[in-house]
Amino acid sequence: MTSVNCTLVGAPVQTGARQPGCLMGPDALRTAGLEAVLQDLGHNVYDMGNITPVDIEHCIPTDTAVRNLDATSAWALALEEAAYEASSNSNLPIFLGGDHSISIGTVPGVMRYSREIGREQFVLWLDAHPDFHTLETTVTGNLHGTPVAYFTGTGQFNGLYPELANPVAPENVCMLGIRSVDAAEKKRLSDTCIEVHDMRSIDETGIKAPLASFLQRVRQARGALHVSFDVDFLEPSIAPAVGTTVPGGATFREAHLVMEMLCDSNLVTSLELVELNPFLDERGRTAHLMVDLTASLLGRTVLDRPTRTF
What we know:
Elements: E1 5-11, H1 25-31, H2 34-40, E2 44-50, H3 69-89, E3 92-97, H4 103-116, E4 121-126, H5 147-151, E5 173-178, H6 183-190, E6 195-198, H7 199-205, H8 208-220, E7 224-230, H9 252-265, E8 268-274, H10 285-297
Parallel strand pairs: 1-2, 1-3, 3-8, 4-5, 4-7, 5-6, 7-8
Helix pairs in contact: 1-10, 3-4, 8-9, 9-10
């Protein structure tokens, strides 16, 4: 793989989740050696540090169950600008979360840059959940369950989230590893053309075929590809540091195969690593795994990967 200019953007956001601890995620990934690993692979790495939220006017949600709307919207505004800046100044911005509500800002930011340079935006959503709630359908009120509905423009957010200038076309979103879907999300997904591959379909066909098909569509469109990697995409036994564990996730080898295929495709233009909660980890094993998976995306092969014991 040729050398890539990577920009690390820390997003210590935990306002979208109920379980505290995600704000430590960016520094855990740094402590696990992300920058050094990428540099050892021959890439140039610039760390922007951790960003901070902007000041906004008070928002009043229509659903009283919604939690931390002001703070989440403030983070989204800051992240949209940071994502646009990082996309403009590097080949591969890597956003270090933080809970998955960071996508309310990161995806519109990279989309703005893609639109500016005339490229169609695609999103690969690696997650146990579709995160397709609106402010009206969420039962928990946790806003990390809303980003896809928001950035595809398929939900009504009543001006409570930042104005969305350029939504991602729903048909340009592919979800892999889905295995926990609320009834409201299931109904809403059935009315869209978002490509969803749950773990049942992956059990039946393997993970290679659906990913290869999606990557071919991105290649044919000469598109930009944002990869959103939630820790709960993985089987909890290998990645315990997440507050939303769902049994039956991707195995160690399935996850590495996904990242290796993404590397081979040379299509990825941005990456985010989300929902890492070091407070729930075991001796840093999840943080180290996420760093290793990122290394696979950026050119490390199986024979290069060191053996790790816990």
